[in-house]
């Protein structure tokens, strides 16, 4: 078994004031997903409010990642926006993290994986210390 380090892309999700950027965002993000099994973290900290159109865009981004057998995680979502996501039921589709570092860390290999080289565990420890 080989341990390939997957790159995690952190991308800022556009806020509600830039409608044109929101509409083009899923296509732009799909253009960045050049590898199989893309790992994407969407930084949602700049979102002031979340509406149905923005939830649809989040779902379109997730669809693009899933087409490539990847995943999208949300990070830094304000409480009001998260409440809207929960009300819509879309919170059950996404994994949501408090910080970008937590979301990135969620893509790293688990410590309990049998056969995982010690270097990978050491790198994970170093990442955790750097993030703290």
Write the layout of secondary structure elements.
Blueprint: E1 8-12, H1 19-32, E2 39-43, H2 52-67, E3 71-75, H3 79-88, E4 95-97, H4 100-105, H5 118-131
Parallel strand pairs: 1-2, 2-3, 3-4
Helix pairs in contact: 1-2
Write up what this structure looks like.
This protein has 132 residues and is an alpha/beta fold. The chain has a single domain (8-131), classed as Transcription Regulator spoIIAA (2-Layer Sandwich). The protein is built from 5 helices and 4 strands. The chain has helices at 19-32, 52-67, 79-88, 100-105, 118-131; strands at residues 8-12, 39-43, 71-75, 95-97. α1 runs parallel beside α2. The longest helix is centred in the middle third of the chain and has 16 residues, at 52-67. The chain is globular and about 30 Å long.
Q: How far apart are the termini?
A: 31 Å
Give the class from helix and strand content and strand pairing.
Answer: alpha/beta
Percent range of helical residues: 40-55%
The percentage of residues in β strands lies in 5-15%
Strand order of the largest sheet: 1-2-3-4
């Amino acid at each position: 078994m080989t341990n390939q380090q997957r790159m995690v892309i952190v991308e800022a999700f556009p806020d509600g004031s830039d409608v044109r950027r929101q509409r083009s965002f899923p296509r732009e993000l799909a253009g960045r997903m050049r590898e199989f099994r893309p790992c994407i973290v969407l930084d949602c900290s700049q979102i002031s409010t979340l509406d149905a159109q923005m939830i649809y865009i989040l779902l379109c981004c997730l669809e693009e990642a899933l087409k490539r057998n990847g995943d999208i995680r949300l990070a830094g979502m304000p409480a009001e926006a998260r409440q809207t996501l929960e009300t819509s039921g879309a919170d059950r589709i996404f994994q949501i993290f408090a910080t970008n570092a937590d979301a990135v860390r969620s893509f790293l290999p688990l410590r309990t994986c049998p056969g995982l080289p010690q270097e990978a565990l050491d790198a994970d420890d170093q990442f955790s210390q750097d993030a703290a």
